[in-house]
Design goal:
The structure holds 2 protein chains of 2 kinds. By secondary structure, chain A is mainly beta. Chain A has 1 helix and 9 strands, in the order ββαβββββββ. The N and C termini of chain A lie far apart (35 Å). By secondary structure, chain B is an all-beta fold. Classes of the chains: A mainly beta, B mainly beta.
């Protein structure tokens, strides 16, 4: 089944800002928005943002999500070493009646 | 504390059967969908299916329909993922996750399944 498209990698310097993108279509991101997950090596994913761009309790304000048309974005401000991880978007696809995940973006903090 | 605790790692031979579990606590287990997600070594996340423990309504990804069975026992707040005949290509980490507002908000620690002759 079709997934959501994310750039494979993003590299930014310490304390800089990284913006990750997640592109879908009108049946998923464009219709329902996307949630964002962070996964450190060897650990389960952790929810960073619900699809309406609200953060769960305990998630830093440095993570903010937005959407424009069929593309969702996650902005990480003031990059820290602990932000090095894989980031995934996810959405409900109303045409497929299925959840779909993004291909994942590896963030490197230089 | 809201948490999902999964059963331990498994090593199986091709053709064997397997059932792994995911026990919820700290919330109303019957009021939230539970999803299963596969992550093959070094790869991304793949949605396998979901179940609503309140009435056992189950939906499968077309990629996994007929390959696995998802079930739940609400009396013990536990969801299950099972295979009747494992293949080497089933080797992966399997996660369960609670679904809230169409997001996978609480994740289990994962169950590593290794299938090798």
């Amino acid at each position: 089944q079709a997934g959501l498209t994310q750039p494979p990698s993003v590299s930014k310097g310490l304390r800089q800002t990284a913006t990750l993108t997640c592109t879908g279509n009108s049946n998923n991101v464009g219709n329902q928005g996307a949630a964002w997950l962070q996964q450190h090596q060897g650990h389960p994913p952790k929810l960073l943002s619900y699809r309406n761009n609200n953060r769960p309790s305990g998630i830093s304000e440095r993570f903010s999500a937005s959407r424009s048309g069929n593309t969702a974005s996650l902005t990480i401000t003031g990059l820290q070493p602990e932000d090095e991880a894989d980031y995934y978007c996810s959405a409900w696809d109303s045409s497929l009646s299925a959840y779909v995940f993004g291909t994942g973006t590896k963030v490197t903090v230089l | 504390e809201v948490q999902l605790v999964q059963s331990g790692a498994e090593v199986k031979k091709p053709g064997e059967s397997l059932k792994i579990s995911c026990k919820g606590s700290g919330y109303s287990f019957t009021s939230y969908w539970i999803g299963w997600v596969r992550q093959m070594p070094g790869k991304g996340l793949e949605w396998m299916g979901i179940i609503y423990p309140g009435d056992s309504d189950t939906r499968y990804s077309p990629s996994f329909q007929g390959q696995v069975t998802i079930s739940a026992d609400k009396s013990i707040s536990t969801a299950y993922l099972q295979w009747s005949s494992l293949k080497a290509s089933d080797t992966a980490m399997y996660y369960c996750a609670r679904i809230e507002r169409d997001a996978f908000d609480i994740w289990g620690q994962g169950t590593m399944v290794t299938v090798s002759s």
